[in-house]
Amino acid sequence: METAQNVDVSSLSYEQARDELIRVVSELEQGSTTLEQSLALWERGEAAAKRCEEWLLGAKARLDQARLTGTE
To answer: CB burial class (10 A; 0-12, 13-18, 19+) of residue 59?
Structure first.
């Protein structure tokens, strides 16, 4: 069974990636992980943040396109 920590970040929705980023930050802030675990969490957090950015850029592009087609 796949846990949320094992799911490929690139397959997450915006909301799932945002929630994963929040979870990672919370876990890092607790400071109860080893250095190796912290590095893995940091990398996962970076991937989740990138996924959120991809979704937001995609949404912006769709809005820009809708504005362009709506004004013609």
So the answer is: exposed
